[in-house]
Design goal:
The complex is a heterodimer of chains A (215) and B (168). Chain A is of the alpha+beta class and 215 residues long. Helix content of chain A is 46%, strand content 12%. Chain A has 9 helices and 4 strands, in the order E-E-H-H-H-E-E-H-H-H-H-H-H. In chain A, strands 1-2-4-3 form a 4-stranded antiparallel sheet. In chain A, a hairpin with a 2-residue loop joins strand 3 (95-100) and strand 4 (103-109). In chain A, helix 1 runs antiparallel to helix 5 and helix 5 (143-160) packs across helix 8 (190-199). Chain B has one domain (19-166). Chain B has a two-stranded antiparallel sheet. A two-stranded antiparallel ribbon of chain B has the order 3-4. In chain B, a hairpin with a 5-residue loop joins strand 3 and strand 4. Classes of the chains: A alpha+beta (215), B mainly alpha (168). The interface between A and B is large, with 36 and 37 residues.
């Protein structure tokens, strides 16, 4: 899930992320739903990282503290001297995403876009300390966020799995069950598959056919 | 003398498994999510409800008594009583939990919860307290991180119950 494109205009500061690899094998019918969930997840994790004064982008770590002068001003206006990019809330409330094909474009849309580029310096024109919350081309999100994305995809696959009664009736062994499940989950490890099955409504489907004992 | 016996493991339906669920373990798993994921999100001014994102800021942090609100970023924590009542409870005989402010909370807490969840208006129709949804309602989901933690907790609980059935 690498960033393949940035856009820095007066109304958009964004990154376009390609998820083709992560989505390979996902049925077309649920792709849009999964991409929408991942987009929302990226916005949530970005807000969460900002509130903790750290970057959601791999390699950028904790944000540099505010200058004494600006910290004083921010403290008096908001009660917080944190480098959380949240003075009025306007910029962080403008973080959003859209989906196209296998790609998600995430960023700040609207009049706060130039402010976002000031912090992210995707254009290379900013003189502010870089506090990156939108990845640059070639960058990606932190490993915990990438892991969450894979968990989200697995959980959506489980929720949308559709087996016929004949598929399930013929299962007698653990290997047969995992072979069938690999049609949904690909070559994921058995422990991850088991977690997704037991953690979602898919457990009810398997239970109907008395197959939980084989997990 | 040791006797080795193989038991037949044959759960007829999830009710059999539910009967084997360790409710104490289940409660612990879900309360951990409430404390570490849900309340952590709220403390950062971010709704734990999917799609709701940041809470509306306090209009005037200085109107709160003493220096209790030091920031305009809402965390729904003035005295702590509201969030102390935000808990996870198991549902006996089912593989289910309820998460939120429960019906046996004090009227004061329930009123406060409702005001924050849905917001309130003045007699003139202006917003008095902005809605800051912090509990999921019907048709809603927790945000991704919390939903995934819930999925994993259910998997752990059921897996433990299945193991205990295999070993009985």
């Amino acid at each position: 899930m690498e960033t393949i494109r940035n856009k820095t205009t007066g109304s958009e500061t964004s990154a376009t992320i390609d998820l083709a690899e992560e989505l390979s094998g996902v049925p077309k019918a649920i792709k849009a739903e999964i991409l929408d969930s991942i987009g929302e997840l990226l916005v949530e994790r970005t807000l969460n990282a900002l509130a903790s004064e750290r970057s959601p982008v791999e390699g950028h770590g904790t944000f540099k503290g505010l200058s004494q002068e600006y910290k004083k001003l921010k403290q008096s206006e908001t009660g917080s001297g944190k480098a959380n990019l949240d003075l009025t809330g306007s910029m962080i409330n403008s973080i959003d995403f859209n989906v196209s094909g296998n790609k998600i474009t995430i960023g700040v849309f609207g009049e706060d876009a130039p402010k976002a580029d000031g912090h992210n310096n995707l254009s290379g024109a900013s003189s502010l300390p870089t506090r990156r919350f939108i990845p640059e081309v070639g960058e990606s999100y932190t490993s915990d966020i990438k892991q969450l994305i894979l968990d989200e995809i697995r959980s959506k696959k489980a929720e949308n799995a559709d087996f016929s009664a004949s598929d399930l009736n013929n299962i007698e062994t653990k290997d047969e069950l995992y072979a069938l499940l690999s049609e949904v989950f690909g070559d994921e490890s058995r422990s991850k598959v088991k977690e997704a099955v037991l953690g979602t409504a898919m457990r009810e489907l398997l239970d109907e056919f008395d197959l939980l004992k084989l997990l | 003398m040791k006797l080795k016996v193989n038991f037949v493991f044959n759960p007829n339906d999830l009710k059999d498994i539910a009967a084997k669920v360790d409710e104490g373990y289940m409660q612990q798993q879900f309360q951990y999510i409430v404390d570490k994921e849900i309340k952590d999100s709220i403390s950062k001014g971010i709704s734990p409800v999917r799609g709701k994102r940041s809470f509306a800021k306090y209009k005037d942090k200085n109107k709160y008594p003493g220096d209790k609100k030091q920031s305009n970023k809402p965390n729904l924590k003035l005295t702590g009583e509201l969030l102390d009542n935000y808990t996870a409870r198991t549902v006996s005989g089912e593989i289910a939990v309820t998460i939120g402010i429960h019906s046996d909370a004090s009227d004061f807490v329930k009123t406060k919860a409702n005001a924050n969840q849905n917001g309130t208006k003045t007699k003139g129709g202006e917003v008095a307290i902005a809605a800051r949804p912090f509990i999921i309602q019907e048709g809603e989901e927790f945000n991704s991180q919390i939903s995934i933690a819930i999925m994993k907790a259910f998997a752990n609980v059921i897996s433990k119950a299945l193991k205990s059935m295999k070993g009985r």
